[in-house]
Amino acid sequence: MQHNSNCYKLNSDTRKSWTAARADCVLDGGDLVSIASEAENQYVMQAFLSGVVLKGKHEAWMGLRRQGDGSYKWSDGWPVFFTQWGPGEPSNLQDEGCVSIHAAFPFHGTWNDTDCAVAKSYICKISYGTAPLRPRL
């Protein structure tokens, strides 16, 4: 699906680990989805995480991952200006370093750091724009 200067694709039929999901997105010419604003988060929620698409039961991998210094970085290299962490997140537990977006209520659209090895649906993004130098208002 195209939105603004980006194309998005939900992969819900085959679930993969974060690393395998990212490799799949890169093979398609993109990366795991990065989200730069509240508006983009809303778009992803409405387009892909509705009860119709994932039936409100799953989480989907996105491109955010914890680094060795404890900071988070998008896999596509875009700066992190916006986050939508769920309550108590990121929990930063030892085995949790990759981020997924919730499809189920009551946490619909919030983000969760979780174990990178867990197989989940995932959202790819091809961006035709350039990374912003500062947050979008």
Structure write-up:
The chain has a single domain (2-127), classed as Mannose-Binding Protein A, subunit A (Mannose-Binding Protein A, Chain A). The mean pLDDT is 84. The protein is built from three helices and eight strands. Helix content is 18%, strand content 34%. It comes from Salarias fasciatus (Jewelled blenny).
What is this entry, summarized?
This protein is an alpha+beta fold and 137 residues long. The protein contains three helices and eight strands; from the N terminus they run E-E-H-E-H-H-E-E-E-E-E.
CATH architecture: Roll
The helix content, as a percent range, equals 10-25%
CATH class: Alpha Beta
CATH fold type? Mannose-Binding Protein A, Chain A
What amount of the residues lies in strands? 25-35%
Instruction: Report the biggest beta sheet as strand number plus sense, adding barrel if it closes.
Output: 8 strands, mixed
Kindly report the average pLDDT value.
84
Q: Total number of helical segments?
A: 3
CATH superfamily: Mannose-Binding Protein A, subunit A
The total of beta strands comes to 8
Pfam family, one: Lectin_C
Organism: Salarias fasciatus (Jewelled blenny)
Keywords: Disulfide bond
Protein name: C-type lectin domain-containing protein
How are the SSEs ordered, and which strands pair?
Layout: E1 2-3, E2 6-16, H1 18-27, E3 31-32, H2 38-48, H3 51-54, E4 59-66, E5 72-74, E6 96-102, E7 111-115, E8 120-127
Parallel strand pairs: 4-8
Antiparallel strand pairs: 1-2, 2-8, 3-8, 4-5, 4-6, 6-7
Keywords: Disulfide bond
InterPro entries: C-type_lectin-like, C-type_lectin-like/link_sf, C-type_lectin/snaclec_domain, C-type_lectin_CS, CTDL_fold
Protein name: C-type lectin domain-containing protein
